[in-house]
């Protein structure tokens, strides 16, 4: 039997971005390497005839980064972005009749596109092309950036593919255009804009518009809730409606809902209010849209109709990047199993879904740890869930085992009952080394409704921490976990929880803090999602002279208590959780003489891309817990 190696994990090929044709007969998807070995990520575009043999074939061959496939309304042409002409500068391409045609040469590159029904145009999203003055300033390094004035933003443009002419309508007053969706059958576009492309300010400034591509006229429909995305049209007895997913006010940090605007009356409503699930995607059809919902450890697909949500199916594990035909009768998505990485699957929304791709055959036959769902109650009676992955080849009766708890990020994320094998700290990678792994879903995450998700606002490290401890104690009581061999790990918010755990308890013999938060005040000040982080930490530095609530939930405030050895991993170019967070934790641990390793990865952001760095994380993670827990 093949042994699982770090190389097998990082060198795998990953399917992405499935898109089904409007008529439901064909499917395209992208295949990407799991890591970067050179300067660029080379990806491939594949097609599948769903009414034929269902076997995918590759349709691009040049080294390039291919992205954003999208079908024409008549299902005859596939549009996509590719930087094969100039690496790093994507242009729009079209595939029709087996021939690929380059449609744009926009010097700033194209960041988005939508082929339109009716006028024969293609809507583009792109920044302004550099002027001669811009190029002169760049040559002379006279390139000071004035906040709010010099910031680049995507504008709506219209391409006539017959002539190659691109026009830029004078609409939306310099706002950053985020998303477009045309009304079924042709007609106006719903356009989502923000005041800025800035990740901190922009998501709080969303507005919805209508744009007529024939007349060039625009109508402002007013503001939308924070972090809006996933536009969809549908009709009801009172006429056309527009929907989107956004954060539920007034909490800025979590809790998504489907919002609905009746265009005739102007009435807005929350269509998922009070539901015990969390919408993740809204997909337009020719009739009622589909809603994809995080539902505990699994995923539900529902139809949004006049009554509310009509459940069509509950699919096991995750269902990501869902795409649907115009008639709503066929979907495609990325999904897998407990011991099988995600692949493209297709079928009716109610299932069953047929597997289309097999991009990770090298994993087949490898002995992985048995994965099982956990359901338990917090100390206050709140229902919780999570996953337990046993050491490969072992049963629970053979315990107790060394236990590593890996906390998910977000915190508005979740563990679903899907394959847990990645380059970052992952359950199966540690299970194949003999560790049991606990994957908790404490309050603050997806899958259990709005109140559950927003419970940690201003209270990070409080109830979510005791939720995690309750699960660990149950595994100890069941004889699965050895109380003298406990470890904790996580990335991003999970890294924060690992740092918080060892600042609050001496029960753990080893911790891994990956891209984690040490100080919430610093994160609100210089993280790319500042006020989102302030909502979690409870305050910002400009909230008077203090003491500030964020200090009370920051691990660095309790560094003098830490006795557990800590492995700190962080990307030097991380803008989500900036590198200074790792430096601060490292300096605090060094000051108090705590055993730790501090590893910096040059050129990496919040998620690592380079092959050697991914390999190092995997090997270092396993070695750290092997040494300290065995």
UniProtKB/TrEMBL annotation:
InterPro entries: 6-blade_b-propeller_TolB-like (IPR011042), AB_hydrolase_fold (IPR029058), Peptidase_S9_cat (IPR001375), WD40 (IPR011659). GO terms for biological process: proteolysis. Residues 427-629 form the Peptidase S9 prolyl oligopeptidase catalytic domain. GO terms for molecular function: aminopeptidase activity; serine-type endopeptidase activity. It comes from the Bacteria. Keywords: Aminopeptidase, Hydrolase, Protease, Serine protease. This is Dipeptidyl aminopeptidase/acylaminoacyl peptidase.
């Amino acid at each position: 039997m093949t042994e699982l190696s770090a190389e097998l994990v990082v060198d795998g090929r990953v399917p992405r971005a499935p898109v089904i044709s409007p008529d439901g007969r064909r499917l395209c998807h992208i295949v990407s390497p799991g890591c970067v070995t050179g300067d660029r990520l080379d990806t491939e575009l594949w097609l599948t005839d769903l009414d034929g043999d269902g076997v995918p074939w590759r349709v691009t061959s040049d080294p390039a980064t291919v992205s954003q496939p999208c079908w024409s309304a008549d299902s005859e042409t596939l549009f996509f972005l590719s930087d094969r002409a100039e690496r790093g500068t994507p242009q729009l391409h079209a595939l029709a009749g087996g021939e690929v045609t380059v449609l744009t040469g926009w010097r700033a590159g194209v960041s988005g596109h939508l082929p339109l029904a009716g006028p024969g145009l293609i809507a583009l999203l792109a920044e302004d092309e550099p002027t001669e003055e811009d190029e002169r300033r760049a040559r002379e390094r006279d390139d000071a950036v004035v906040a709010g004035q010099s910031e680049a933003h995507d504008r709506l443009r219209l391409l006539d593919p017959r002539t190659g002419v691109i026009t830029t309508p004078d609409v939306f007053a310099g706002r950053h255009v985020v998303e477009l969706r045309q009304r079924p059958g042709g007609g106006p576009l719903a356009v989502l804009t923000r005041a800025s492309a800035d990740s901190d300010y922009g998501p709080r400034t969303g507005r919805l518009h209508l744009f007529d591509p024939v007349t060039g006229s625009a109508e402002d429909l007013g503001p939308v809730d924070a972090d809006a995305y996933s536009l969809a049209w549908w009709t009801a007895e009172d006429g056309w409606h527009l929907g989107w997913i956004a954060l539920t006010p007034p909490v800025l940090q979590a809790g998504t809902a489907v919002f609905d605007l009746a265009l005739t009356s102007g009435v807005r409503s929350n269509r998922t209010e009070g539901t015990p699930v969390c919408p993740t995607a809204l997909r337009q059809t020719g009739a009622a849209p589909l809603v994809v919902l995080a539902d505990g450890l699994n995923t539900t697909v529902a139809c949004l109709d006049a009554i509310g949500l009509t459940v069509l199916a509950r699919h096991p594990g995750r269902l990501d990047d869902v795409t649907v035909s115009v008639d709503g009768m066929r979907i495609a998505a990325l999904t897998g199993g407990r011991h099988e990485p995600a692949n493209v699957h297709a079928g009716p929304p109610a299932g069953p879904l047929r597997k289309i791709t097999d991009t990770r055959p090298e994993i087949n036959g490898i002995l992985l740890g048995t994965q099982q769902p956990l359901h338990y109650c917090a100390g206050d009676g709140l229902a919780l869930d999570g996953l337990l992955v046993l050491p490969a080849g072992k049963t629970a009766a053979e315990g107790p085992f060394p236990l590593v708890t890996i906390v998910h990020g977000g915190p508005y994320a979740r563990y679903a009952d899907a394959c847990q094998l990645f380059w970052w700290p992952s359950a199966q990678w540690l299970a194949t080394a003999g560790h049991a792994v606990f994957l908790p879903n404490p309050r603050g995450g997806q899958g259990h409704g709005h109140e559950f998700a927003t419970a940690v606002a201003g209270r990070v490290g409080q109830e979510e921490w005791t939720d995690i401890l309750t699960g660990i104690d149950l595994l100890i009581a069941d004889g699965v976990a050895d109380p003298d061999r406990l470890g904790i790990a996580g990335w991003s918010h999970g890294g924060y929880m690992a740092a918080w755990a060892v600042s609050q308890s001496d029960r753990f013999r080893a911790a891994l803090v990956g891209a984690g938060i040490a100080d919430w005040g610093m994160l609100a000040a210089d993280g790319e999602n500042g006020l989102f982080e302030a909502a979690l930490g409870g305050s910002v530095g400009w909230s008077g002279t203090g003491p500030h609530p964020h200090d009370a939930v920051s691990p660095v405030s309790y560094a003098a208590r830490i006795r557990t050895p800590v492995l700190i991993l962080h990307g030097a170019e991380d803008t989500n959780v900036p590198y200074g967070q790792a430096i601060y934790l490292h300096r605090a641990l060094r000051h108090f003489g705590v055993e730790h390793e501090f590893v910096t990865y040059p050129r990496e952001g919040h998620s690592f891309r380079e092959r050697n760095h991914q390999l190092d994380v995997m090997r270092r993670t396993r070695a750290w817990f092997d040494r300290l827990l065995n």
